[in-house]
Amino acid sequence: MKTAHVKTATSTATAKPSASRTRRAAVAVAAAVIAGLALPATAGAAPNDARDPGDAVTVPTRYAQQQLDWKPCDGQPTLECATMAVPRDWHHPDAGADLSIAVSRHHAGDPAHRKGTLLMAAGGPGASGLLRPAGLAANAPKVGAAYDIVSFDQRGVGRSTRAQCQSPEQFQEFMAGDYRDQSPEAIDRVIANAETLVAGCEDHSGDLLPYLTTEETAHDLDLFRSLLGEQRISYYGPSYASMIGAYYGTLFPHRVERMLLDSNIGFEGTWETFELGQPMSFQRRFDEDFVPWLAARDSTYHFGATPQEVKDRWEKRRAALHDGPIVAGAVTIGPNQLDNGAIGAMYEEANFPYLAGALAAVDDWQGADATAKDLAGKVFGHYLSPDFLAEYFSVTCSDTPWTTDLDTWVERGAENTARYPLVGARTLAYSAVCASWPKTHTPRVKVTGAHLPPTVMLNSVHDPATYYEAALGAHRALRGSRLVTVTGNGDHGQYPTANTCVTGVVERYLLDDQAPEHDLTCPSPQAG
Asked: Which candidate in 104, 128, 239, 394 is catalytic?
């Protein structure tokens, strides 16, 4: 694996005051504005009259003048929620019906020392960000005291205007079977299921799909910033939200006060290239982290005392599920479900005991008690959802170009299945969706980092989903960024955690305006 040129955290964090503090912009617009006049996408002139690339897109007054009607969020008393209207297509704002974007706000706990607004987004693509400010404020109390923390459900997600593709029953068919099966019949079935999924998306969300892109979302965020009355914002983006932040920072660099990107998508390239790297990284996490962990606990889980014994037992159990899936009520555990449970568990080491317990139950289903079977049902029976994948495919298939030749994907799928079977086996299923996806005309965004303040990026070396090699490429593209490499760790998401090195770097940056002067490393607590 590639390594970065790094320095220790203790030697490189030096004071670098930000260019300015967060300032309030006037929310009111003069009553004499002619109805229908287009205003810049920013509520006020950029600092020093600088023009951002995103300013080429204008906002009609019906969006720029709307007021956010803040009310307590359902089920989350520490948050306020509101709904924001946005154009379906920012590049043709008068065409098509408006979209609704659900937004939220957690007020700074210490108003007298408030630094400004910290905007956060969710990963996926497909996860909901609406209620996340409460969690960040609770888990990072110093940040929660200093900032109003705001978030949203991205267009296509949750309480915003949603995309829909399939019913739960149809989704189960897409995930059914054994993606490793390379027989002609199995390949035909996978491709047919992918085409059925795309047809469902077009039937239920066809006129919405072309506008569910990261570039359109970046414009939504700048309108949100404007309606909050902020001239500049700080930004925190984990996982896919790192790409949202990179796009926003590219289009609106003068609107960014500070930017923290955690567990980074390869946002300098294409989704196709990035996703082709994930089979390697998930397999690495499984083989090098989970399998030895499980072997060291054979006295508890009885799944093998050496890594090779664990892998052999995994393959034996998976082959048995191919021939005879476990059916328990509404839950079916077949080969794909076994893989899916393992894929989900790889994101955090804290999940390893749950996966191990579920494996032990599946390995001796007749002898497993009700509690163990219930655990197995949760681990192997609940993976993603049709709503999540509706947004996931909308973004990943539309943001950047995809190879559409299915013969290419059959060949790549076979190669990945043989080399990196855990995730590589689903290469054909996922790529066939994008190969059949309706064409869009979304503008391409080339991330450069131009005019941005120093950006802090976090990534662990064995992150399975946002793998370290992709983070290095994103770091090189985002000029002026500082990469914090977390060693001895493979968790997805590095802040906020118990790692005091990472916490110190992040909070010096967000609270004291001290960006690291160079790239640096932070060892994981268990490694240090």
From this structure: 239
First-to-final CA distance of the chain:
21
Question: Is 106 known to be catalytic?
Answer: no
Phi, psi (deg, nearest 5) at residue 487 = -95, 160
Residue 492 known to be catalytic = yes
pLDDT score of 31 more than 90: no
Look at residues 86, 133, 137 and name the one whose alpha carbon lies nearest to residue 105: 133
Average of per-residue pLDDT values in the chain = 91
Residue of 55, 492, 513, 519 with catalytic role: 492
Rg over alpha carbons for the chain, rounded to the nearest Å, is: 24
Which residue ranges form the domains of the chain, and what is each CATH number?
7-161+214-269+446-527 (3.40.50.1820), 164-207+274-399+403-436 (no CATH)
463 a catalytic residue: yes
User: CB 473: neighbour CB atoms within 10 A?
Assistant: 18
Catalytic residue among 363, 463, 513, 519: 463
Note the pTM of the prediction, 2 decimals: 0.90
How far, in Å, are 79, 106, 360, 493 from residue 135 at the CA level? Answer: 10, 10, 33, 14
Specify the residue for token string 């810049």.
40
Q: How confident is the model at residue 20 (pLDDT cuts 50, 70, 90)?
A: very low
Q: Is the pLDDT of residue 16 over 80?
A: no
The candidate with the shortest Cα–Cα distance to 155, out of 88, 250, 225, is: 88
DSSP β-ladder status, 7-8 and 116-120: unpaired
**What is the Cα–Cα distance from 228 to 46, expressed in whole angstroms?**
16
Amino acid code (one letter) for 206: G
Instruction: Report helix, strand or coil for 463.
Output: coil
